[in-house]
Amino acid sequence: MMLPPQKIQHGWLQPVRKISSPHFDARPDPDDVSLLVIHYISLPPEQFGCDFIDQFFLGKLDPNTHPYFAKIYQQRVSAHCLVNRLGEVTQYVNFADRAWHAGLSYFQGREKCNDFAIGIELEGSNNQPFTAAQYRTLQQLTTLIMQNYPQITPERIVGHSDISPGRKIDPGQFFDWQRYLSGISA
Predict the structure, then answer these.
(1) Of the residues 46, 88, 111, 121, which is catalytic?
(2) In the annotation, is 111 catalytic?
(3) Smaller CB count within 10 Å for the chain: N or C?
(4) Number of H helices, E strands in the chain
(5) What share of the chain is helix, strand, coil (3-state, %, to 5)?
(6) Could you report the per-residue pLDDT of 34-76, keeping only the tens digit for each?
């Protein structure tokens, strides 16, 4: 098991697994990193521990591997980080860059949340609780992000469902916001 993230250096977490996604671009304002968005993902749905999320974020998902993949394999999607079921972190996009995780979104009068947000995916679904290891890692990761990006405060941490209501439901019914927020510190 890899150590949880200890620091952020030039937009990259240290030490974590890094896989550079091609699905990103420059932020319109590099000094405006002011929102943290929590998501969940499992590929195929309800299956964990595979490398299909990596393939998806790299644009290399084989549509013939699973029927669900035929619906999504051409999407150009990424997140800054993934926290798997064991609590291990993979970083796909530098925090200084705009990952493509939020899609059509809106927060406090602003559209296009990708412009100013960091996106973290939890390996999970709306049908199963997240693991204790995921909460511990997410809390450590959030604290580190807040220390490095002080515009992100607890009030500026949201679920995908909060910025894309009616379109998205993640992080879902099993995400324990109180447990998560009680373990972060600025």
Answers:
(1) 121
(2) no
(3) N
(4) 5, 12
(5) 25, 25, 55
(6) 999 999 999 999 999 999 999 999 999 999 999 999 999 999 9
